[in-house]
Design a protein that fits this description.
This protein has helices spanning 4-8, 14-20, 65-77, 84-89, 101-111, and strands at residues 29-31, 38-44, 49-53, 63-64. With 116 residues, it is α+β, with helices and mostly antiparallel strands. The chain has one domain. The radius of gyration is 13 Å and the shape is globular.
């Protein structure tokens, strides 16, 4: 049986995210979902939080890796689309702390080839 990653050619994994990071990897850039700004993963902390660098050079606050994995799984299960607004709605359900992550997460998942 194929895994989700094989079926959809999705490259999402913690090792891939670490490889993309500025501090531990190659500083692979990706666009926000709207395609207007470039971002990168700055680091993945020891306590499994992800920090991104915005196009302005400012760092984002930490996002729990479990929340990112949860969103990824919801996309692949078909429960939500890769859409910033749908991801932001998860804030209401307590999965994300702010509504600004939708654009960043959707852009990252799109860059990694995630789809339903």
């Amino acid at each position: 049986m194929q895994s989700l990653n094989e079926k959809f050619l999705c490259k999402f994994s913690i090792p891939k995210l670490t490889e993309m990071s500025e501090k531990a990897g190659t500083k692979e850039m990706f666009k926000t979902f709207g395609g207007r700004n470039l971002m990168n993963i700055y680091e993945i902390t020891k306590d499994e939080k992800i920090v991104m660098r915005r196009s302005t050079g400012k760092l984002t606050w930490e996002l729990d890796m479990k929340a990112l994995i949860h969103v990824h799984n919801l996309v692949h299960s078909g429960e939500i689309d890769i859409d910033p607004h749908e991801i932001d709605k998860l804030r209401i359900k307590g999965k994300l702390k702010t509504t600004t992550w939708g654009n960043y997460i959707a852009g990252l998942l799109k860059h990694l080839g995630c789809q339903r």
